[in-house]
Amino acid sequence: MEKQDKGRRRVYLAAPFFTEEEVANIERAEAALAGRGLDVFSPMRHGAQALPGTTQWAYELFETDRSAIDGSDLVVALYYGSNGDTGTAWECGYAAAKGIPVVLVHMNRDGDSNLMMHCGCTTNIGFADLASFDFDALPVYEYEGKMF
Predict the structure, then answer these.
(1) Over 93-107, what HEC string results?
(2) CB neighbours (10 Å) of residue 15?
(3) Minimal CA–CA distance to 13: which of 128, 92, 126?
(4) Rounded to an integer, what distance in angstroms lies between the CA atom of residue 116 and that of residue 93?
(5) By three-state DSSP, how is residue 11 classified?
(6) How does pLDDT run across 5-58, given as a tens digit for each residue?
(7) CB 33 within 8 A of CB 76
(8) Are 130 and 33 spatial neighbours (Cβ–Cβ below 8 Å)?
(9) Helix (H, G, I), strand (E, B) or coil at 88
(10) What are the phi and psi torsion angles at 41 (to 5°)?
(11) Rounded to the nearest 5°, which phi and psi values hold at 133?
(12) How does 115-143 read in b/e, with b if 16+ C-beta sit within 10 Å?
């Protein structure tokens, strides 16, 4: 996924998709982001040609996702607090290290957050905020909930 200089901003949607609830949340996020005019790359929609569970399969998925992050203008990550996914955490850290802004979407506002996640990302919002968040200006909102 190559970055675009003009037109729609490219968003990498980082999120776990192991449960029905997580899949439903990704689908809602995809729709919300696309509805805002953003070009969304969702790893849930991209597979590998190698046999699932093999080393080749793992490397294909890793390279596809890493390349997609490299080609993104920003990362939007669905974050479930202390029950968060290590893959999502890696994607956020990688993007931050590359200078790609990360919008951390706290899926449970009454939950908790690891300080490496909420401090390491560009801004912190709730899921409902996807409908109105300014993805061009990227205002910074500090996390104010329970943390560890």
Answers:
(1) HHHHHCCCCEEEEEC
(2) 25
(3) 92
(4) 9
(5) strand
(6) 456 999 999 999 999 999 999 999 999 999 999 999 999 999 999 999 999 999
(7) yes
(8) yes
(9) helix
(10) -100, 120
(11) -60, 140
(12) eebbebbbbbbebeebeebebeeeeebeb
DSSP assignment string, 12-80: EEE---SSHHHHHHHHHHHHHHHHTT-EEE-GGG---SSPTTSHHHHHHHHHHHHHHHHT-SEEEEEE-
CB-CB neighbours of 101 under 10 Å: 17
Question: What CA–CA distance (Å, rounded) separates 119 from 11?
Answer: 20
pLDDT in tens, 111-122: 899 999 999 999
40 close to 13: Cβ distance less than 8 angstroms: yes
User: Tell me, what amino acid is at 64?
Assistant: T
Instruction: Give the C-alpha separation, 57 to 51, whole Å.
Output: 6
Question: In which residue are the tokens 């909420």 written?
Answer: 118
Q: What's 5's DSSP letter?
A: S
Q: Tokens 């901003």 map to which residue?
A: 9
First to last CA, the chain: 35
- Residue 5, C-beta contacts closer than 8 angstroms, at least 6 positions apart: none
